[in-house]
Amino acid sequence: xxxxxxxxxxxxxxxxxxxxxxxxxxxxxxxxxxxxxxxxxxxxxxxxxxxxxxxxxxxxxxxxxxxxxxxxxxxxxxxxxxxxxxxxxxxxxxxxxxxxxxxxxxxxxxxxxxxxxxxxxxxxxxxx
Length: 128
Prior knowledge:
six-stranded mixed β-sheet, alpha/beta, 3 helices, Nucleotidyltransferase, domain 5, 21% helix, 31% strand, 8 strands
């Protein structure tokens, strides 16, 4: 099974649609057996669901994610675990241990104020 995590500098990247890379973990028998960082090459938002589907991801862990991306991920058959933060490796270990909560709903609704500076999308909405 492949699990993809939005990724930058070892951490869960907090905005799904703008992630510069995914760290993709291969999991077998409830253990991480390998991982690699795959650059998104500027692919963003809705196209990322196809990107993840193409690499065979079954699960995606991220910080913030909007409703349109959730729908695209659902159509691609990819389970979403949103609202994660901190170390990408620790998030995957929590997933493997069964302690990472599955959140398949939008955690980021910033699209109405896009372009208004940096923001951090995480649990419960978007914070400037």
